[in-house]
Every structure is written in structure tokens, then in C-alpha cells.
Design goal:
It contains 9 helices and 15 strands. The chain is α/β, with parallel strands linked by helices. Strands 5-1-6-15-7 form a 5-stranded mixed beta sheet, sandwiched between helices. A 5-stranded mixed beta sheet has the order 11-10-12-9-13, with helices on both faces.
Length: 244
């Protein structure tokens, strides 16, 4: 290969390699969310806009850190895969920070504490919590709720792409319980107080974080500084009062 052509090739190659690592400076950052998890993230049926606690949290963090973002509505499994593969810059979607997920993506500091809880039909008297949970139990696929059900002897896990379908099956008597994050459970029970009830206490300690593609490691420090600043200002408490 002639020297001039070789130098041109090397220059183009270096430019191409530099682009993926500079997403922070090359325009909007894509933030994936699975908008099927009210009140954290859902699609407003009137405006068709993605709304919720997580959406407001991420918007506030972006403003504090000076980041230009756009939300993308993605199903749960493709969301996690997309962050792991670098298809999306970040994701905020009630994502529990786990050691297993840390193998594939980076996480910000926690911005919310949650835990799993059991929801049953209003007339259920046998199931009083995770300790005597038995039968077919629903959870959203790939969530910590699903993982916890699999640990409980005597249960059969039924997974759903949308947690709302799990609650619908529960109200229709097709499953005996749903396991999910406690704020989500409170939301569905609050909307259906004559059909659903929570039994037992929160039985896991979990923390939500913003998932970040490994190629965007330079974002972590900015996100963490913004989270700390917003906590100090009381912004998260205000948003919790609004949504939760």
C-alpha cells in the first residue's frame, strides 16, 4: 500500500475508533426506558409522552450535569442487552444494581431504595407473604421479582413482558400472586383496592441506579455528582412526593 494511502487509511480508522467513545460530546445521549412500570415510567395514554418518577429524575440529573438526552422506549430484555452492547448510552428503568449486571454495564450511585413485595387477590387468605407463597406467581421477565420467585420452593414462575398483564391475570384468578417492586405494587393496589392487597413486608433490599454503557465510563462521575447535588437540594424527595 502506498504511503499516502496508508496514512489516509490510518487517519480514517482513528477517527472511526474515536467516535463511539465520544458520545457525550457528539450530540444527544440516548436513554433507554421500559415504559411499562408505573409510576416510574409509563406512556401517558392522552399525550403519548413517556412520564414517571424515573423520567423526571433523569431529566433533573441531565439538567444538573449539562447533558443533552432523549428517551427511547424499549422492552426490558432488549433494554439491558442494548446497554451491554452499547446500542444505548444509558438506561433508567427501575433497574436494580446487581453484581451480575455489573459484569455487562456500569452503574451510577443509587438514586432510590426499593424491595420486592407480594400482591394477592383481595379474598386470598392462605398466602400471607413470601414465607408461604405457593402456586403460579407472576413477575416481569428478567426482573429481580422473577429471580426471587424462582428461589421459593413450591412456586411456578409465570413471566410477562408488561407487569400490568401480570396484575390483570391476578385479578382474573389466573395466577395466585404477583411479586414486584413495592412502589409499583402500591400503585396497582391503590388503583384496584377492591381487587388487590399487599401481604407481608418488603423482603429484599434493592437500589436503583442508572445503567451506563461501558464505552461511556466518563459519564459516571458527572451522573454521581448530579445525583449528590440533587439529593442535597431535596429534589428527589420532591419528585417522590409527586409520583409515589
Amino acid at each position: 500500500m502506498k504511503r499516502a494511502t496508508w496514512l489516509l487509511f490510518v487517519g480514517l480508522l482513528l477517527i472511526g475508533l474515536a467516535v463511539p467513545g465520544c458520545s457525550k460530546d457528539s450530540g444527544k445521549l440516548t436513554v433507554a426506558t421500559d415504559a411499562t412500570w408505573p409510576p416510574f415510567e409509563y406512556v401517558n395514554t392522552d399525550t403519548k409522552a413517556i412520564e414517571g418518577f424515573d423520567i423526571d429524575v433523569m431529566t433533573a440529573i441531565a439538567q444538573e450535569a449539562g447533558l443533552d438526552i432523549e428517551f427511547v422506549n424499549v422492552a426490558w430484555d432488549p433494554l439491558l442487552t442494548g446497554v451491554a452492547q452499547g446500542t444505548y448510552d444509558m438506561a433508567i428503568s427501575s433497574i436494580t444494581i446487581t453484581e451480575d449486571r455489573k459484569k455487562d454495564m456500569l452503574f451510577s450511585d443509587p438514586y432510590f431504595a426499593a424491595g420486592q413485595i407480594v400482591v394477592v387477590g383481595i379474598n386470598e387468605s392462605t398466602i400471607t407473604g413470601p414465607g408461604n407463597l405457593a402456586g403460579v406467581v407472576g413477575a416481569q421477565i428478567g426482573t429481580t421479582g422473577a429471580f426471587e420467585i424462582e428461589k421459593i420452593s413450591g412456586t411456578t414462575l409465570k413471566t410477562y413482558d408488561d407487569i400490568g398483564f401480570a396484575f390483570q391475570d391476578l385479578m382474573n384468578g389466573q395466577i395466585v400472586a404477583v411479586v414486584c417492586d413495592n412502589p409499583v405494587a402500591l400503585g396497582y393496589v391503590g388503583e384496584n383496592p377492591t381487587k388487590l392487597k399487599i401481604v407481608g413486608d418488603v423482603f429484599t433490599d434493592e437500589y436503583y441506579g442508572i445503567a451506563v454503557a461501558k464505552r461511556n465510563s466518563d459519564l459516571i462521575d458527572d451522573l454521581n455528582k448530579a445525583i449528590a447535588a440533587l439529593k442535597a437540594k431535596g429534589t428527589f424527595d420532591q419528585l417522590a412526593d409527586k409520583w409515589l
